[in-house]
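Researcher: Let's do a round of design. I'm pasting the structure tokens now; please hold your answer until I've finished.
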């Protein structure tokens, strides 16, 4: 019952209540992001949604204009505190997860949920093995099991297995627990960036 009806209802209600606060965030940080290098405020990235449908995920732009695409060897996006591609405000909004707040619009559109697996890049679909595409059985989330407990500190393939665990155990209690642990993680700024690795690839 929760998975089929109440999860979506709670997503919409909470998002509508949060919308005025997000507009304040937009008013404050939008101009700062723009005047940093006169670029777009938003970064709109194609991502894999439920059942493999590709959608446009919204984020505040944290990188400099025309920054090169750098990936880890497993195909996941490179993420580091000393990433030279980040603007000065970009470092702050990543540490505080403010860059993720525009996904409130994705929730209202029905592309995402508050809690769910973090969405992969479209090209990752071809890299799924065995049962890994099961993570696409539910809508991706702004936060999720990995974000609550590990954020960016574990390999992509391990994150996928955690996503499948979430799909198999989805419940109101688990979602509530994930939200509260995520809040604690963001407040403490724990595990924001991945452990630095030399095993990266320029795309």
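Researcher: That's everything. Go ahead.
Model: Designed sequence:
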């Amino acid at each position: 019952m929760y998975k089929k009806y109440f999860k979506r209802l709670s997503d919409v209600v909470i998002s509508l209540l949060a919308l005025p606060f997000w507009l304040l965030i937009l008013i404050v940080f939008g101009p700062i992001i723009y005047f940093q290098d006169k670029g777009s405020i938003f970064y709109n990235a194609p991502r894999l949604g439920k059942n493999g449908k590709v959608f446009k995920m919204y984020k505040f732009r944290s990188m400099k204009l025309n920054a090169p695409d750098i990936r880890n060897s497993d195909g996941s996006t490179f993420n580091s505190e000393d990433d030279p591609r980040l603007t000065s405000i970009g470092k702050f909004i990543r540490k505080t997860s403010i860059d993720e707040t525009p996904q409130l619009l994705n929730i209202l559109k029905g592309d995402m949920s508050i809690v769910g697996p973090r969405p992969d890049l479209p090209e990752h679909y071809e890299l799924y093995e065995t049962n890994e595409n099961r993570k696409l059985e539910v809508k991706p989330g702004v936060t999720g099991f990995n974000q609550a407990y590990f954020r960016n500190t574990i390999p992509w393939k391990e994150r996928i297995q955690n996503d499948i665990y979430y799909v198999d155990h989805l419940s109101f209690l688990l979602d509530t627990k994930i939200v509260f642990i995520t809040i604690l993680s963001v407040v403490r700024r724990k595990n924001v960036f991945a452990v630095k690795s030399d095993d990266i690839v320029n795309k």
